[in-house]
Each structure stands twice: as structure tokens, then as C-alpha cells.
Amino acid sequence: MRISARADYAVRAALQLAASGDDEPLKAEAIADAQDIPHKFLESILNDMRRGGLVLSQRGGNGGYRLARPADSISIADVIRVVDGPLVSVRGVRPPELSYSGPAESLLPLWIALRSNVREILDGVSLADVASARLPAGVSALTETPDAWVNP
């Protein structure tokens, strides 16, 4: 699985909004500066997130962006899906739409298992979890295996 720059920026922007609370909206420039995200790219991402119902925008001098729902009700998967589409695809196709034959036949259950695990992790972690540095125990446990931090 590959996390695109767009998805990474979107999650980081959403986390910046989650950390700010509901006090006042954050301007895109402030989010871009805080997270070192190119401003024009961030504007496009925030528009996608607004259309996807994850953020609200407010115009004017006191305007900016805020989360549309509480941070504990928005998963990391929600953010990625809004800006990038399905979490797991093969050649741009969702696994259930694929078919294989011969020795490649068991690839389909493998892709489905991969998608299931990705969903379990990303749907199970909210913006509030990450913003507060309190990942679910199961996710934290995965980072404790010796090979987790090593690139093969």
C-alpha cells in the first residue's frame, strides 16, 4: 500500500484542525505553515474535504476551516477515502471486481485480506487518537515488532 502525498497532507491538515479544537476556524495559510504543506495544494485538498463532509469553511476576516464533526468520530480512513478514493485497489480496481485464474487464483483472497487489515487499522484510528498521541493498543502493538521499523 502506498500513501500518496495528497492523503498524507490531508491527514496532517485534519490533525491540525483536530488539535485546534472548536475555538476558531484555522486559515489554510496557518495549516500549511504549521504542517509544511504547499498552500495551493492544501487549498485543493481542503475543498475535497469540504465536499466530502469532513470540514466546514467559513468566509470573512474570522474565516477558515474547522472539522465538521468531532475528531473522535472521523477516522484516518475517512480522510484518505475523501481525497484518494478506496484504501486498497489493484491497478485502480477494487479487489472484489477482480478475477484471476490458474496459479494466480489465490491472489484475490490475498488482496481481500490486505484490504481487510488496512481497513481494520485505518478505520479503527480516529483523528482524536492521533492528535492526542493515544493510538489504540492493537495498532501500538504492531509497531513493537522488531521488523516494523526496518525496510527489507
CATH homologous superfamily - what is it? Winged helix-like DNA-binding domain superfamily/Winged helix DNA-binding domain
Share of β-strand residues: 5-15%
CATH hierarchy, class: Mainly Alpha
Q: What is the strand tally? A: 2
Strand order of the largest sheet: 1-2
Topology overview:
Elements lengths: L4 H16 L7 H8 L3 H13 L3 E4 L5 E4 L8 H9 L22 H17 L3 H5 L5 H6 L10
Antiparallel strand pairs: 1-2
Key phrases:
152 residues; Arc Repressor Mutant, subunit A; two-stranded antiparallel sheet; 7 helices; 49% helix
Q: Any overview of this molecule?
A:
The chain has 152 residues and is mainly alpha-helical. It has a single domain, classed as Orthogonal Bundle (Arc Repressor Mutant, subunit A), CATH 1.10.10.10. The chain is built from seven helices and two strands. Strands 1-2 form a two-stranded antiparallel sheet. A hairpin with a 5-residue loop joins strand 1 and strand 2. The mean pLDDT is 92. GO terms for molecular function: DNA binding; DNA-binding transcription factor activity. This is Rrf2 family protein.
